[in-house]
Amino acid sequence: MQKPIQHTITVLVENKPGVLARVAGLFARRGFNIESLAVSITDDPTISRMTIVVTGDDTALQQINKQTDKLIDVIKVIDYSGVPIVERELAMIKVNAEPSRRAEIMQIVDIFRAKIIDISETTFTIEVTGSVAKVDAIERLLSPFGITEVVRTGKIAMARGAITAMSQVNNDG
Amino acid sequence: MKMNGANALIQSLVDHGVEVIFGIPGGVMIPIYDALYDRKDIRNLLMRHEQGAAHAADGYARATGKVGVCFATSGPGATNLVTGIATAQMDSIPILAVTGQCRTTVIGKDAFQEADITGITMPITKHNYLIKDPNQIPRVIAEALYIARTGRPGPVLVDVPMDMSLAEIEYEPVREVKIRSYSPEVEIDDSAIDEAVELIARAERPVLYVGGGVIASGASDELIALSEKTHILVTTTLLGKGAIPETHPHSLGMLGMHGTAYANHAVHNCDLLIAVGARFDDRVTGKLAAFAKKAKVIHIDIDPAEIGKTVQPDVAIVGDCKEVLKRLVDRVPPRQETEWNRQIMKWRNEYPVVCPNEENELLPQCVIAKIWEMTKGEVILVTDVGQHQMFAALHYKVTKPRHFLSSGGLGTMGFGLPAAIGAQVGCPDKTVVLICGDGGLQMTIQELAPAVQYKLPIKICLINNRYLGMVRQWQELFWNGRYSGVDISVQPDFVKLAEAYGAAGFRVEKPSEVEPTFKKAMEINDRPTLIDFVVHREENVFPMIPAGGTIEEMMVNRPKPK
């Protein structure tokens, strides 16, 4: 058995209604596990970009890429395995912040270059951006104070250097 | 030219060569059916259930190679197509389903006869469309037909809300289709061809394993040429039947669960398996770990996703089978018959496919063997699903591509009769023979009405054992003979039923009556004929490898009672 590992793939799709359902439905019915999924429009308004984090062995990943590429509305599947990438995730974390403990929390926020974007008598809402590991870490450090709500965008990723996803589209037509 | 969306839809179909539609109207389809009313260049065959319409379009596509088209109304009409669409998807058959939809203004509001058919059919279509702008209709129809028939073919559905049918548009025919996210033409990797040639040249015990892809790509001549140049023998899947004439000395018939023993022995012992347009279905492989485990594998398929889906090949060639086989034939060195060929022939003599010599009792396989004897593979043979289908696969030697039509992947009971209608409409000059069981026939029996209405002289050979026979066989062999839910001996008098519909009906109960009655049926040319072959109830299909089993577990005959 091959070891399941995490893969980040980028999927460029036609910016049309229902495309997300096609991709998500395909993953569900073929038994592929989505760890996270982020979708938005690109600099070309007719194209949307999905960043999907999946776990599986190499064989499973190959199937994921090929089956996804088969969907008519999918323009290009780019597998970032083995490619140097920059990756980011954004999270908002609502945490209990009694006045007596606020200084401590603000220290953690500083260390992580996060921001306090909302404050109430009893809570802070903190915005943090970074790698998935960094977001995991701040979440862990804030949890002793009592996290009441977390929302994460899911990972987005790009290859390092001059290569772009769009240039790969133009190359293969 | 100005016209409404409904007329634009019909005009688009005509512009792309569609001549026949199988369908049933309904409230939101009235504008589209109205657009058909005055046309002489395209006709609607009125089916009696939408499932029948989808299977008829499928049968038409399988027999002709053209895209089959079916129509259904919104809601229940559309959902009734689902089984037929899934059948086409599993077997890669090009059909276009056009469904009516409630007006765009009420979509999502649980309107009367509203069903989210694009959502429902997403997993069982190659692609689907919901029309939201009437000006898109000509382009969408052109794209849908193009997607259905190119690359790995498959079903496409177009959902047309009623207000889109009614809206006026300026009609411009769409002649060229280009979809940036879909490029069905793949460049064949020549180095992979060289590697395959190398493997073939080195192989001592090669076998060709051929599926429906060879039929779809029209690659029979190339396949036969390859087999004749190299003396590599050919086994096919159910859908590959006819890719090489089964009367050809190089044909080993079908492999798999109910395949011939010699085909299975050949595959089990081969050192090179050349899979062409086949997908290593579990009914073919049985226990995957034990399947052709001594063999290197060459996998040729137009769909890159099939490569490595089930079996990791040593050489993969992605491309149209016809072109790939052509290049292989050109480059592969000739090979003479070897000890391996003789070994396979020995297996063939050891485990021949024969019918028991039974004079008093009518056996299903003997009826089918007789039909083969009388038609010599010249007819289009359609089957339903079950024991009779496997008997047909074993005993009916198909001699040409597109002359054996059967639901393989989905195994859809009820497929046979409507598919036979589609085949007969597509090939009016050919004889269409349907072999079906009493279970499956009753699932779409209502389609006798259009067969009579359109004077289709289909020969319906009902192999009637008053059981859901395949399930009964499994219960006998693997479930201690506990026949739960399979007895369907309460059934109509099928001869009278055929006559009630206006078809001819005959009953055959003795082996001696098979030939004269089938001859009588062959002479009836203005309506369908149903022959009710009342066969032995508990005949089993052998050989059989149990599901998930290996060749060691193959039963060549009925096991002796313990």
Task: Provide key terms for this protein.
heterodimer; A: about 170 residues; alpha+beta; Alpha-Beta Plaits; 2 domains; 5-stranded antiparallel beta sheet; 4-stranded antiparallel beta sheet; 5 helices; elongated; B: about 550 residues; alpha/beta; Rossmann fold; 3 domains; 6-stranded parallel beta sheet; 20 strands
* Major beta-sheet overview of chain A: 5 strands, antiparallel
Name the largest protein-protein interface in this structure.
A-B, 22 and 20 residues
Dominant shape of chain A: elongated
What is the gyration radius of chain B calculated from CA atoms? 24 Å
Describe this structure in words.
The complex is a heterodimer of chains A (173) and B (562). With 173 residues, chain A is an alpha+beta fold. Chain A has 2 domains: 5-83, Alpha-Beta Plaits (2-Layer Sandwich), CATH 3.30.70; 86-156, Alpha-Beta Plaits, CATH 3.30.70.1150. Chain A has 5 helices and 9 strands, in the order βαββαββαββαββα. Chain A has helices at 19-29, 58-70, 102-111, 132-142, 165-172, and strands spanning 5-14, 33-41, 47-56, 74-79, 85-96, 115-119, 123-130, 147-152, 156-159. The two termini of chain A are 37 Å apart. In chain B, the strands form 4 sheets. Chain B has a 6-stranded parallel sheet, with helices on both faces. Chain B has a 6-stranded parallel sheet with strand order 11-10-9-12-13-14, with helices on both faces. In chain B, strands 16-15-17-18-20-19 form a 6-stranded parallel sheet, with helices on both faces. Chain B has 3 domains: 2-170, Rossmann fold; 190-350, 3-Layer(aba) Sandwich (Rossmann fold), CATH 3.40.50; 364-542, 3-Layer(aba) Sandwich (Rossmann fold), CATH 3.40.50. Chain B is built from 23 helices and 20 strands. The model of chain B has no long low-confidence stretch (mean pLDDT 97). With 562 residues, chain B is of the alpha/beta class. In chain B, α7 (137-149) links the parallel β6 (127-130) and β7. Helices cover 37% and strands 16% of the residues of chain B. Classes of the chains: A alpha+beta (173), B alpha/beta (562). The interface between A and B is medium-sized, with 22 and 20 residues.
